[in-house]
User: Fold this.
Amino acid sequence: MSAAPLRSNARPGAAPPAVRQQRASHLRAVTAPHHSRTIVPFAWLCVGIVLAALSTVLVLNTTMAEGSYLARELSIDIAQLHQQRAAILIQLEANAAPEALAQRATELGMQPAGRIGFITLESGKVLQEGGR
Assistant:
């Protein structure tokens, strides 16, 4: 023989079959309460995220396009300013030539100097012929 206790099919603490039938007569199966889970808020959240992402991309693209147009306009302005500067430098060099200066001086009524003299500031004397 074994030392293991005898097993029975009855569960410990279970009521006898007659009591079970009496209890079962007034019991009935009920369905679980229906929890209404909907995906509408989640769908609206997804739609909102997609719309926000698309509008952000649109704003960034528009801003970048405006910036590129502005950069293009500025580079055109810079090129025009370089051309103006080059033209002004050419005109300045032409006006600074000795022949052009002499012609402009005669137009203003100036005459060439005969003798060149210098004045010393310390003594106030007029020196002629290069400081002699």
